[in-house]
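Recap quiz, item 2
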Amino acid sequence: MGQLIHRYRGAIPWLLMLPGLAWLAVFFVVPNVQMFLFSLSEGTLLTGFVSPPDTWSFGNFPDAVTRYSGNFVNSIVYGGLATILCFLIGYPLAYAIAFRGGRYKSLLLFLVIAPFFTSFLIRTISWRIILGNDGPFLGIIRDVLGVVPDNFSVIGTPLAVVGGLTYQFLPFMVLPLYVSLEKVDRRLVEAAQDLYAGPWRQGGAIAGALLGGFLAIALQVGLGYSRLVGDDATPGLVALAALVGGTAGALVGASMVSQAFLRVTLPLSLPGVFAGSILTFIPAIGDYVNAQLLGSPKTQMIGNVIQGRFLEQNDYPTAAALAFLLMAAILLAIFVYARVLGTEELSGGR
Amino acid sequence: MADTNLAERAISRRAVLQGGSLVGLSAFLAACGGSGSTAVPSTGGEATPAPSTGGEATPAPSAGGDITGPLNFANWPAYIDLNDDESASPTLDDFRAKYGIEVKYVEDVQTNEDFFATIAPALQAGLDTGWDLIVLTDYMAARLVRQGWVETIDPANVATAAANVRDELRGLEWDPDMTYHFPWQSGATGVGYNVASTGRDLTSIGDLFDDQFKGKVTLLSGYQDTFSLVSLLLRERGEITNLPPDLTVEDAQKIKDFLQPYVDSGHIKGFTGNEYLQDFGSGDTWVAIVWSGDLASSGGDDDRFVYPTEGSIIWTDNMLIPKGAQHKRAAEAMIDFVYDVDNAARLAAWIYYISPVKGVAEVIAAEDAELAANPLLFPPADVTAKQYAQPDLTDEEDIAFNDLVSLLEGA
């Protein structure tokens, strides 16, 4: 018996992996092969499909890209902005919970994930009500403050879509950040302080101003409030946004960022940043519910197109091609990102 | 009994619509439930299979085996009558009581295309869709029939329906002998608006594009309603000569080119199915292309429907039994049940659509003169003179139209 185990020792890891591998084979590999064949097919559900090897419609891919480039751009911009916003909101939050949470840590973490006990759809529809015509948001800025006209609406704007995405995926950012910040050895921070890692006023101000300015421009242009190029470009507005963002960033950078944070805490939390942004960006870029419920025809993302081609037009080939392109784009983005941050960060720097 | 139903039409279903759809209507009997012919004892509680007490013309026929439930019935929102507190439907309760089976009435059809997409894969694969009775508009019903995805209706089980269906609804090209379908209701596509928000009464399709309403306008998704209706506006302006049933791909391109700037500028804020009802309720939508009866039955006091001066679109939604339905006999019983004149009158009086049943006009006229003059139930001659059917397209044209639609709708 012992000999038997010894002889097949090499097989044990494979046996342990068997359930997972079988799962992947049945629910990932097979559907993907199927989808790949669809992406090279022609026809619709009603007219019938002509599939490989009878036809090899590689043209589906370039057609899909040219036709739906606007939706791809929307996805990347909205997904990217939502990831950045999640990071901006999530990092201070995770930091505060990890370093200052004290005995309320568990409660605070619970509050972060508490919204998940409600259905994703219900939460999105709630935003429709909150931002809607008779909701509290417009109730304040339109009816009480009177700063916007009567037919003003937030629903249907990119702001609503990005806001929805940010809200939905914030916990995906906070939890990995929390885990990596929690692991930071406080003695390292103390040691850094002992070794003259003091405040970082000048550097913080400059770095903060640059980052703040860049973010303000990204938000303003990404949300469609102004344009950098073209006939209706508004460089004045962009400059104003950059000024406001830069000033705010400089203040934050100068007053709140220390050298110890910059040299110890931040580098040690990078695995969390990496994991958090991947976990936020991937679902955000493929999401279609927020654009569907909070957006307008102009803010439709690639997920909406895939959903529409699959479920309304019954145009499976185009939908499959788009799904593959989205997958490829995400893999490429992760690859580049991993190269920049370093793949070893994924495993916690080991 | 029936007159109380007509008189006590609930005005607003907004609360119900905002709270969700009518999934799983509780089995409460309506306090005033019961039609003129079936007396259902108000037990104040569960739907006991009440004995069919006297007066019912046809005892439940037995052809084709026993009627077994539950009847899985997929219909559009705002398409069934409700009792006063909007907790149950008298029609469905009476049906339950008469046949002693459960009805799972689900308002799952928001647009023809979306619903078709949910059942098509199962039908294609020869599987049961889970539905026993579905309601789809003419062109989509015809498509299902062409595909052979619809069960034939046993004439022996629908004697009332066969006798009572209005003559002008018979002899359709895609199902001349009513082998596969019976109409549920007919209605029109026109312009709906909230008069408190618009500040004036609207009369035309052109009013949809008034600058004052920028950002508060929705159109119906797909080309069957929106493109048809907008074509009437462009026809009035001399840009299109064809009537809606004869629209060509070139016409569709013109319509798309006309609408695109309004989408780009944000004037048109979206394309919807039946969910425009929620947007009217919250004030997010002021003006929209809508179906005729919805705002009257389920909108607010200030929500109006108008047959535009340029003309309107007329259509019929049809009951079909999808291939492989598990409770076909129950579906046939439902078809026959809603063709009973009193049942049909009660239904039409609540939902404000055009009943396909002969004699409904007389029943309503006898009980409620005001309702008998309602143009939603009985469109006047000057309206019907300018009503047109939806486009009748080949598969290739359908794909071309849908391409334009998807460009316009952004996805």
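Chain B touches chain A at residues 113-114, 117-118, 120-121, 124, 143, 147, 212-216, 263-264, 266, 268-271, 282-284, 286, 395, 399, 402, 406, 408-411 (CB under 8 Å).
The mean pLDDT of chain B is 82.
End of item.
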